[in-house]
């Protein structure tokens, strides 16, 4: 899980850093920079991270609405057959609201003929008249340098050292 | 004839009220929050009510029924609507019709769950689903009966909302759906971006969504010349026109955060090409004494830790909507979005559309937004076409007012789908009646 393998020269403390699962996956893949960038964009649409799972767990334990009653009865009628953790997780996953991207995938909009306007075709598409401007990830001013390890931008030695100490390859979500 | 309830169900705010009125009865954040001190999610207070109730919003967790603009959690939406209808509007849905706004290109599965919500959970007698661009057009056209918008019966509605921004051409009160272009950036992403910047550079505010929302509304503005403003933001001391301090609530004396020096926060307006803002500046000079008094009063309190400075963040955050590429997003900016939306329409419409651009949605409230858009748009539009950008007097309520107008029109009843229709034909067939 740790990124030590990708960066053997950097000595780390043995205490594990908390790395977000998506970021860990992104780091493991070949094109990890783009994946990291995508995950970051995705994070811009999040509310509070990880909230849904917390809510569902607490719901199962301390509130007893109809659903849970049924669930409990079922549990008792089955007697000795207990629900495994996996089954419980599956049930939670079924109950949890699906994200928009999942619904979008399910709607299968790609299969529509090309003249039908749809959610996918309404996106503006890549820019023509302007290219990406780069801003320093530390202070926000225009940046001339790219970090060789992670591809983020910085503008000066000072920002570089701050970047190395605090942000380089530390994706904590 | 039953009364019509108009609900503009936005990702950020629900605007709801009786059809035919000028302003919505309630503006409610479309979310439930859980403060640190509690285990249960609570309903938000409507934001236009008298703010006597103090809510503890620090580090509140938020759940929203709407993700990326579309309704994905009908259960949560049912809770919020039930609260809205019974406690805030005080109506019984079984005796009312509903006019509901829905984003463009809503997926069929989401439409079905919306219909179920309206007819099966709330038992409304009838439903009309409208899209926001046509409602905004309707409102603007009726407000100015002699303008080009109402004479040509067409306009380009640029709606920068909470979840995304749409440029939508409207012709004869119908949105031209093949011309609609979308940028996946809205107020929510901007707030989260500001949150990320502040958390990295000064204080960890990742959980303070409501607070940062307010900071964004109060302090962010659109820059008219980014390289120049970046240079100014680099300066130290008094030369730096953009630096300003936001004081966080301490929970004892101030339950709400505030800008430390509101006068200083407005200094950017005195920059050379902010010429049109000069009169505004004089205006602010008039009420200067009062403002300073407040500022002095607040400066006495020693906040050693509970504040953060903003400099270039103030204009780099709204900048993202004009240049999503800077975030690493492979999407064109707002100006190009407008051009592409217009180009997708019939060439005869082009000059009319460029001359009747209507700005709506909460994210257009950043100061100098319209000016910047015009600056970017002009070089992209052919010389012989005029560019005219109309701003609404209240961009957040524009859609609702259009809906209220539509609901009060005499043939509204005939356009609705009734509960009987729904029960007989099901969701998909009923939806065809709305032409989208």
- Radius of gyration of chain A using CA atoms only: 23 Å
Task: State the share of residues found in helices of chain A, binned by percent.
Answer: 40-55%
Largest interface: A-B, 50 and 64 residues
What would the average pLDDT of chain B be, to the nearest integer? 84
Indicate the CATH class of the largest domain in chain B: Alpha Beta
Structural class by helix and strand composition of chain A: mainly alpha
Structural class of chain B: alpha+beta
Q: Give the name of the CATH architecture of the largest domain in chain B.
A: 2-Layer Sandwich
The N- to C-terminal Cα distance of chain A equals: 15 Å
How many structural domains does the protein architecture of chain B include?
3
Uncertain segments of chain B are 274-303
Based on CA atoms alone, the radius of gyration of chain B comes out at 23 Å
Strand content of chain A: under 5%
Subcellular location (chain B): Nucleus
GO biological process, one term (chain B): actin filament-based process
Keywords (chain B): Nucleus
Family (chain B): Belongs to the actin family. ARP6 subfamily.
